[in-house]
Amino acid sequence: MNYASALAFRRREEITVAPYGFRSKDTKGRKHFENEHEFRSPFQRDKDRIIHTTSFRRLEYKTQVFVNDEGDYYRTRLTHTLEVAQIGRTLARALGANEDLVESICLAHDLGHPPFGHAGEATLANLMIDFGSFDHNEQTLRIVTFLERRYDAFPGLNLCYETLEGIAKHETEYDKAAIAEYSPDLRGGLEAQIANAADEIAYSAHDLDDGLRSGILAPDQCRDLLIWRELVNQVGWIGPDFTDLDRHRIIHALTNNIVSDVFYSTESRIKEAHIQSVDELQRLPYNVICNSETQRLQNRELKDFLFANFYRHYRVMRMSYKAEQIITRLFQTFQKEPRLLPTHIQENIEERGLERTICDYIAGMTDRYALSQYRKLFDPSFIP
Fold first, then answer.
1. How distant, in Å, are the alpha carbons of 138, 190, 196 from that of 282?
2. How confident is the prediction along the chain (384 residues), in pLDDT tens digits per residue?
3. Is residue 337 a part of any domain in this protein?
4. 91 Cβ contact partners less than 8 Å away, ≥ 6 residues apart
């Protein structure tokens, strides 16, 4: 090992990471022992391993809100993940968190999502209710600890404990934590909390952006939102024309405003609590990452607006309905006749059980692969 290189990233962390941020030298390590890399920190290695997985590449063709073939400009799970990682890095650097650890958690947080977004997850959860359940957070852990097979010495990616803990404690309004094996008595560390906040910020900003771009939402619909009135005043938009540039400026201002509010609110909360260590932060009765009360109320108003006017719009509801039909029919058909599964998938049945094997198979599909499998099985005019 080049010890000079190894010491370089540790010295860098001593300078850039706050006392309540996590340092590589304090890691609990990996389940399967590995020698440290010469010049990459343990969390940088985790980040690199996640990026090189099959599951990460598949995110490009998994739904965020719009099904992948709806258009090239809407967010996918991959672009959402990259935006979450970018926001996470910004907050990590500003707040003295470990950037590599934050980015690892952000990049992994949606690996377990099935095709067709939240509609796909809800459908799989219902189908698996008698067979061990399905939750995309738990599926993410399953992917990085078991399903990805890239190394001879162990299943999964053999990520550091802290990365796994951050993934397990990923919790937003749309996600629940799966923390049974990862210190359930402790809150997520600063890095895990930053990843959660980055996910929430990215959701609100890019769903508003995609809603406006698609024409499902119109500027006039947004005018009663306090956050919208402040944004248009901030960027100087007076209408009536609403160009792509106007939309970009508003979404940029929205993202910057919320991120800045998280930084200043969190910095104040950390100072007030006199936190001096990772352990102190994790034992607090509340999360340190937060918004101001004013911003929290505006965020709530925006989420309620998106739910009523975007996520429940008939175009989105139609896509959700089709997703439910596709996943349900695929699952039940494979369940009734397992020999229709690809041979290499059938080989997993003895170890995992039939329903879990089917669930893993469908959860790993992209939107377009699920659609192609549906056509192959049920469209008589489609020649496989």
1. 22, 8, 15
2. 555 565 677 788 899 999 999 999 999 999 999 988 888 899 999 999 999 999 999 999 998 765 555 545 578 899 999 999 999 999 999 999 999 999 999 999 999 999 998 899 999 999 999 999 999 999 999 999 999 999 999 999 999 999 999 999 987 554 455 566 788 889 999 999 999 999 999 999 999 999 999 999 999 999 999 999 999 999 999 988 999 999 999 999 999 999 999 999 999 999 999 999 999 999 999 999 999 999 999 999 999 999 999 989 998 898 889 999 999 999 999 999 999 999 999 999 999 999 999 999 999 999 999 999 999 999 887 766
3. no
4. 97, 102, 194, 197, 198, 259, 262, 263, 266, 289
Q: How far is CA 20 from each of CA 59, 206, 277, rounded to the nearest angstrom? A: 32, 31, 4
Alpha-carbon distance of 284 to 168, in angstroms, equals 18
pTM of the prediction? 0.93
Give the range of the structural domain holding residue 9, as residue numbers without chain letter: 3-316
Distance in angstroms (rounded) separating the CA atoms of residues 332 and 337: 9
Which of left, alpha, beta for 42 (phi over 0: left; psi -120 to 50: alpha)? alpha
Judge whether 122 lies within some domain: yes
Asked if residue 338 has a cis previous peptide bond (ω within 30° of 0), the answer is no
Residue count (the chain): 384
Nearest 10 degrees: Cα torsion 232, 236, 237, 243: -110
> Chain-centre distance of CA 290, in angstroms?
18
Whether the CA torsion 219, 221, 224, 228 is positive or negative: it is negative
Query: For 327, what's the count of Cα atoms within 13 Å in the CB-facing half-sphere?
Result: 30
**Which letter does DSSP use for residue 217 in this model?**
S
Q: 130 lies in a domain?
A: yes
How many domains is the chain partitioned into structurally? 1
Name the strand (E) or helix (H) holding 362. Answer: helix 354-363
CATH number at residue 80: 1.10.3210.10
